[in-house]
Specification:
There is one protein chain. This protein is 68% helix and 0% strand. Helix 3 packs antiparallel against helix 7 and helix 4 runs parallel beside helix 8. The protein is globular and about 60 Å long. The mean pLDDT is 89.
Length: 263
């Protein structure tokens, strides 16, 4: 564990140095990400100028939910570059061969060879939004609440990372530059709004087939003390562990199917 943490620190430090070397590109990427986040919050504010509640959710509660949803989403985005580009960069371009030659887990290398550093602002923005909304509601934080916030945020990030990396494993069998991520990625946004506004089929989809509700909605409902399905929140660590287990199984099976580019 210590060796892998040291490797992660080295990977991140080296990539950060290279990333900020091109400051203009980094700042443009950061500014674009910030503007997109602000527009999302702006949509919520505009929405609540026309309605007082959204299926029983007040503006502050909706901001709490949306802010919390940004925390695991930001964690996922930090590690997302190679998840999205796995099929193109590693399989089709043949870079996966060099990964297999190193005495470190191939999955570990793929996940941590590149980062989207500017997405750290999403984590920070999410925490600020949660704190502001909680303050507006008179929420009193206890040590247990802070621990749960951190635990649920990490579990949500692990759910996203594991699920999308599982989708990347399809590239072991079907070589495709784009992959099957885009339509599933759009479902992340559904989990940042109250699940009760969707049909029963969508609720089932986001809970048990593509479990993004466990990354944002259920933990938020639990922290807010909402009655609706909050009892499912304690399952978030189990869902994260299940997603990670399925990823490892898919990855190991994919490794057995992998054949080099031959070039």
């Amino acid at each position: 564990m210590r060796r892998h943490l040291q490797l992660l620190a080295s990977y991140f430090a080296n990539y950060a140095k290279a990333r900020v070397e091109y400051r203009g590109d980094f700042l443009i990427g950061l500014a674009t990400s910030i503007v997109a986040t602000l527009f999302a919050f702006g949509f919520l504010l505009v929405l609540f100028t026309n309605i007082s509640q959204l299926r029983g959710w007040s503006l502050e509660q909706a901001l709490f939910l949306y802010g919390f949803g940004l925390i695991p989403f930001g964690i996922f985005n930090v590690f997302s570059p190679n998840i999205y580009e796995f099929g193109n960069n590693y399989i089709i371009e043949g870079k996966f061969d060099r990964v297999l030659l190193r005495p470190v887990s191939s999955l570990y290398q793929v996940l941590f060879e590149a980062f989207r550093i500017e997405s750290l602002h999403e984590v920070a923005t999410g925490i600020l939004a949660v704190c502001w909304a909680a303050h507006r509601m008179g929420y009193v934080w206890s040590a247990a609440d802070v621990a749960l916030l951190a635990l649920y945020g990490l579990c949500g990030g692990l759910i996203y990372i594991s699920f999308f990396m599982m989708l990347s494993c399809v590239s072991f069998w079907f070589e495709d530059r784009i992959g099957i991520h885009p339509p599933v990625w759009n479902l992340i946004a559904f989990g940042r709004y109250p699940l009760s506004i969707y049909s029963q089929w969508i609720q089932f989809l986001l809970s048990w087939l593509v479990p993004f509700a466990f990354a944002s909605f259920y933990p938020s409902a639990h922290l807010l003390g909402r009655r609706e399905l909050r009892d499912l929140a304690p399952l978030a660590p189990l869902v994260a562990a299940a997603c990670l287990t399925l990823l490892l199984l898919a990855w190991n099976r994919g490794l057995r199917e992998y054949s080099s580019t031959g070039s």
